[in-house]
Amino acid sequence: MRTRNCWLRALGACLLLAGEAAHAGAVLDRIRASGQITFAHRESSVPFSYLDANKRPVGYAIDICLRLAEAVRREIGAKALTPRFLMVTPANRIQSIAEGKADLECGSTTNNAERRKSVAFTVPHYIAGARLLVRADAKIDDVAQLNGKRVVSTQGTTPLKALQQLGRDRLLDFKIAEVPEHTRGVEMVERGEAEAFVMDDVLLYGLVASRPEPGKLKVVGKYVTVEPLAIMLSKDDADFKRIVDDEMKRLIRSREINPIYDRWFLSPIPPRNTALNLPMSYLLKDFWKVPTDVVWF
After folding, report:
1. Cross-referenced SUPFAM superfamilies, in alphabetical order (predicted)?
2. I need a labelling partner for 201 at 20 to 30 A (CA). Which of 31, 47, 125, 293 fits?
């Protein structure tokens, strides 16, 4: 019986190793075989990942992903690597990476412990915080003033979960509406269908800048959350992650990432050629002093 049990344990270990080997290199193998790298992108996560007037994916995270793709191309010795784009939503973006439909998610996704169960993240490219978007004439500057009022946030996002938790912790009776994309949340505030839209402040500024009448909206309130935003990738290819992490760290340490940041946060951007005028925060500068994919959230 003891011999049989030892044999079964050995067989189980072999099967486990075989399973791990089947996953190892899966992303790089797919990229080598196809000559393509697939970017998951967003429709309206300004200025990280969104569609311009010609419906082309553009943004800060897209530009970073293009640099990461070039590092992958050099590493695998390919003459060329064609970017392929797959539009995702907050609800299906994690699934798109976990199921291998995309290789990099180039957006505004928060790296947190729950998501790390399914996917991996590289070094954060932005540190954001969730705040409130309200109408310019609204007398609201704090979450507590939304008690009993209708509030909107985007499905599958950490600000939505934080809002729900805040309501429980502070006994606030929010009437929370969930929308599939950020633009719809802004529209609800504009039309008076909701008193506030809760989302990462940088996204709110970008969304306001893209509206026909940006002066009718304002971003208010203290931070509801602190969000390390990072590019998402598969957990199942250590070599691919090493290439991505090494290139992110190189871009940060060499400061080659700074002009990319300036292009999207300090200069006029599509579609209305409006500048967000958001200098790099001290939070991000401090985090980049020792760039790492490790975050304590």
Report:
1. Periplasmic binding protein-like II
2. 293
Q: SS3 for 145?
A: helix
My answer on whether 116 and 141 are in the same domain is no
Which pLDDT value is given to residue 17?
37
Neighbouring CB atoms inside 10 A of 297's CB total 14
Tell me: do 175 and 82 sit in the same domain. no
Among residues 225, 240, 271, the one where a domain terminates is 225
| Nearest to 235, CA basis, from 119, 149, 150 | 119
User: What does the pLDDT look like over 63-77, one tens digit per residue?
Assistant: 999 999 999 999 999
The pLDDT of residue 2 is 45
Residue 238 domain-assigned (yes or no): yes
Distance CA 295, CA 219 (A): 27
pLDDT of the residue at 281: 87
- Write out the residue range of the structural domain in which residue 141 sits: 130-225
Q: Which residues, given as ranges, of the chain have pLDDT below 70?
A: 1-24
CATH code: domain of residue 99: 3.40.190.10
| Inter-residue contact 265 to 47 (CB < 8 Å) | yes
CA distance readout (Å), 160 to 142, 157, 227, 290 = 16, 5, 12, 30
SS3 155: coil
**Domain count across the chain:** 2
